[in-house]
Amino acid sequence: MTRDQDWVRSKLGYSFKDENLLASALTHRSAGSRHNERLEFLGDALINFVIALELYRRVPRADEGDLSRLRASLVKGGSLAELARSVSLGDQLKLGSGELKSGGYRRESILADALEAMFGAILLDGGTEAASKAILVLFDERLHNLPKPEHLKDSKTRLQEWLQARNIALPVYAVDEVQGAAHNQRFSVSCQVASLDQVTTGGGTSRRKAEQASAEKMLEILTKESLI
Amino acid sequence: MTRDQDWVRSKLGYSFKDENLLASALTHRSAGSRHNERLEFLGDALINFVIALELYRRVPRADEGDLSRLRASLVKGGSLAELARSVSLGDQLKLGSGELKSGGYRRESILADALEAMFGAILLDGGTEAASKAILVLFDERLHNLPKPEHLKDSKTRLQEWLQARNIALPVYAVDEVQGAAHNQRFSVSCQVASLDQVTTGGGTSRRKAEQASAEKMLEILTKESLI
Q1: ipTM rounded to 2 decimals
Q2: Residue A22 class from Cβ within 10 Å (0-12 exposed, 13-18 middle, 19+ buried)?
Q3: Nearest 5 degrees, angle CA B14-CA B19-CA B20?
Q4: What is the pTM of this model?
Q5: The total number of structural domains that make up chain A
Q6: What is the reported pLDDT for B147?
Q7: Domain assignment of residue A111, given as a range
Q8: A130 shares a domain with A173
Q9: Is the Cβ of A23 closer than 8 Å to some Cβ of chain B?
């Protein structure tokens, strides 16, 4: 048994029949023509499906929006990269010398992509069921510790829902200031909840980001002080 | 056998064990609390996965970008709505009176969503394999008549690749004119390929769209006239 075989069996609980598939999954495009990009496409689709089905079953009261946000939090690049690190996937990866020199093996996206490719390879090697099982084992802890769906909503949405639940008039956002040149602007936005006599301000590189920052501050004030 | 059962068996080749699942899949949120939104989330993920796997097998030379574009063309809302119409899904849909009055049953997104929900329901009722089979039967003609991946690329990308393949310097885009108020602007952009002495102009509601239009015109000229 090769070192790669050993690794995948101990870390992902799967034994490859076709070692070439395993080798492709572990090869970044910088390291050879039989690289993992097509497998990554496949694995990404599979992970999205398996996690969707699992969330559908586990969170029967979540609506479509909540399910989408929960899934996004589980399968986003940063989360996949963390899972890849938890099984030391970086140590198995074949990278071209350029990527190696630039410390590319640590780069989030390379790790996330390779993890997707690994599940794509298991799918082709052992079928949908074997690959689903391997995915659910790796995601097990996260599936047991799902964030509350409302925490995944953006601040403006949460503020709006908080106010609506209390029959309070919605906030008014206003751009107070824009600084900098066209492609390097800095926005300052105020968020006012007039009936509670509260104003916060937030900053960001876009109007949207500044609005979110101001809404987040307003939420902090309102939920901390229990003004109502 | 109910009318819905009849329909799904004759049009999608599947017989439901659980009629409640079928009923939910056919119920828009305007028509009741047991509606199809959660099933739509599930079906969307399944269709994306099944089509990804099928494209992976059918188009072995396509790279990841081509596979993504091919899939997007197959599963975009308009394509799903067309497939929904081809099986007269609209006739089976349960819609609230508001949606009915507004002619909502014809609306693309309602049809596309309901088709996704239908496959989500088949998945829960009969498992991944049965649902995959039903999806592949419905998509069969489209899978046999896939567009050429290069035709799915945007005009600027195609123009760039056409020029690079001929070692010609890349085009220069310039905004010639912007008309209208801030939220209702009209852009006019020129695309210049200096070494071929060609200039085209394109218009659109954003700079990006205007650039694409100008690139499309340039492509038409270059590929038609065979200037090289």
Answers
A1: 0.77
A2: buried
A3: 130
A4: 0.77
A5: 2
A6: 87
A7: 3-147
A8: no
A9: no
